[in-house]
């Protein structure tokens, strides 16, 4: 896929999101839904609520040192130290050794595992959990959640779904990143259009997109209404669900993106590109329309905000954010995350499991967020807290980052399919959409071919 020439400024945003919420093949990403994409067993019993504030101090334990591998970002190091300090209040016998992993930290951890020196606790992004699970590298966290009294009802089901494999949890998410819309407020004001409000509909979204699009006499778009990021799995799977369709049979583990309702949902978005209202992710443009102030809106996630905001500042226009629009027949908000997992081969596995599980306690989760200053909390009980809002984008519509969190959808193709098959979903569906937009074939035929490739890989 070609990279937009004018999208150089987006490289940083993509790298940030790769660290905070990434798809299996390394492109920016989103989690399961609170609906029929759930991987939670019907007989699952939530653990009792516990905010960690009144946990008894564990006494009479031998000293333990946990090695913790993560990426080398200063903010993440600060967040980890905040988490360490909070955890040690109730586990004073535990000390920590923070290890900065080079390159892709999760892939580096796999290499270390082969050499027998993977850290006790490791950072991993959502789309890589299944790969590490298949290699037997991750310890289940369920007993840790139970020992610590983690309230599973306090966590959006979609966010926990990334690590929920075959009835057990293998991953604790560090932050909440759901799709939202970045808005060029200055452009909307110039067009006489009010700032959209959280909870707006797909029809209202499309009306705004079309009203802010401009074309020259030859039909070439000179100002785009939106960037959909439709080559990106969080967006793809949201729209695929938007007309009430299902693209994955959880019994047969076969995908059906060519299902008529799924096709209709994807077509809603693809037609905006095809008709010139949204920029084309498969085309190289001579400029980046957002950076030049010639784009009204863009679909993205919280970790990408600094790059979008910096571009707006450089050009001199005002911006804000609003919730992802409610799709026509089903509200499905794509999302993603990264987080931490415990090494199944750790010599102190129980302690590693408990430490990772503690990230889902309000005290530890808040300490992580306060120290790092950039993470939107996963826990619903903390999402109304002001501690994270000022540090991220003070004065903006921060409610958009946590709007209807129970409608977030996880990539069940990442979790339920074999890792190799799951990692083909984004590239194959993106290619199918590209062929439709460029009039090479019908969307139905293109998606049928994508289904064949993905299902063929799953069947190997």
Overview of this structure, please?
- It is a single chain.
- The protein is α+β, with helices and mostly antiparallel strands and 460 residues long.
- The chain folds into two domains: 5-17 and 179-335 and 408-458, Periplasmic binding protein-like II (D-Maltodextrin-Binding Protein, domain 2), CATH 3.40.190; 64-177 and 336-396, 3-Layer(aba) Sandwich (D-Maltodextrin-Binding Protein, domain 2).
- Helix content is 37%, strand content 15%.
- The protein has helices at 10-20, 74-90, 105-114, 129-134, 142-148, 157-160, 185-190, 202-211, 233-241, 260-274, 305-315, 349-358, 362-372, 389-393, 412-416, 419-422, 425-437, 443-458; strands at 64-70, 94-100, 121-125, 138-139, 164-165, 168-169, 172-173, 177-178, 180-184, 214-215, 221-227, 248-249, 254-255, 295-300, 319-323, 333-336, 338-343, 408-409.
- The strands form five sheets. Strands 1, 2, 3, 4, 7 and 17 form a six-stranded mixed β-sheet that branches. Strands 10-11-14-9-15 form a five-stranded mixed β-sheet. A three-stranded mixed β-sheet has the order 8-16-18.
- Helix 5 packs across helix 12 (349-358), helix 9 packs across helix 10 (260-274) and helix 17 packs antiparallel against helix 18 (443-458).
- The chain is globular and about 80 Å long.
- Mean pLDDT is 88; it is low at 1-53.
């Amino acid at each position: 896929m070609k990279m937009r020439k004018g999208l150089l400024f987006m490289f940083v945003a993509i790298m940030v999101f790769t660290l905070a919420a990434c798809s299996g093949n390394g492109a920016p990403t989103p989690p399961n839904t609170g609906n029929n994409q759930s991987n939670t067993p019907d007989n699952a019993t939530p653990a009792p609520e516990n905010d960690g504030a009144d946990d008894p101090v564990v006494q009479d334990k031998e000293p333990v040192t946990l090695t913790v591998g993560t990426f080398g970002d200063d903010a993440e190091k600060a967040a980890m130290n905040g988490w360490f300090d909070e955890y040690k209040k109730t586990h004073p016998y535990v000390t920590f050794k923070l290890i900065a992993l080079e390159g892709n930290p999760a892939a580096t951890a796999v290499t270390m595992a082969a050499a027998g020196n993977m850290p006790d606790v490791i950072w991993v992004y959502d789309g890589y959990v299944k790969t590490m699970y298949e290699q037997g590298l991750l310890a289940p966290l369920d007993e840790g959640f139970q020992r610590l009294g983690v309230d599973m009802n306090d966590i959006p089901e979609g966010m926990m779904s990334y690590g929920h494999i075959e009835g057990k949890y293998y991953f604790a998410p560090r932050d909440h990143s759901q799709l939202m819309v970045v808005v060029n407020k200055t452009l909307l004001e110039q067009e006489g259009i009010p700032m959209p409000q959280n909870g707006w509909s797909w029809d209202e979204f499309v009306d705004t997109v079309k009203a802010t699009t401009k074309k020259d006499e030859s039909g070439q778009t000179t100002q785009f209404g939106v960037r959909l990021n439709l080559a990106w799995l969080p967006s793809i799977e949201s729209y695929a669900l938007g007309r009430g369709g299902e693209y994955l049979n959880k019994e047969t583990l076969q995908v059906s993106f060519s299902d008529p309702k799924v096709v209709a949902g994807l077509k809603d978005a693809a037609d905006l590109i095809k008709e010139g209202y949204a920029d084309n992710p498969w085309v190289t443009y001579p400029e980046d329309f957002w950076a030049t102030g010639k784009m009204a809106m863009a679909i993205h996630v919280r970790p990408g905000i600094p790059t979008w905001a910096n571009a707006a500042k450089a050009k001199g226009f005002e911006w804000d954010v609003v919730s992802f629009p409610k799709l026509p027949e089903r509200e499905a908000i794509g999302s993603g995350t990264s987080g931490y997992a415990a090494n199944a081969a750790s010599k102190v596995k129980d302690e590693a499991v408990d430490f990772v599980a503690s990230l889902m306690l309000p005290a530890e989760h808040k300490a992580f967020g306060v120290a790092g200053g950039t993470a939107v909390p996963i826990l619903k009980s903390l999402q109304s807290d002001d501690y994270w809002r000022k540090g991220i984008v003070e004065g903006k519509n921060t409610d958009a980052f946590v709007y209807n969190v129970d409608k977030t959808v996880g990539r069940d193709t990442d979790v339920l399919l074999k890792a190799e098959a799951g990692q083909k979903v984004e590239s194959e569906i993106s290619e199918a959409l590209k062929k439709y937009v460029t009039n090479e074939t019908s969307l139905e035929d293109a998606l049928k071919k994508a289904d064949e490739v993905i299902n063929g890989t799953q069947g190997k």
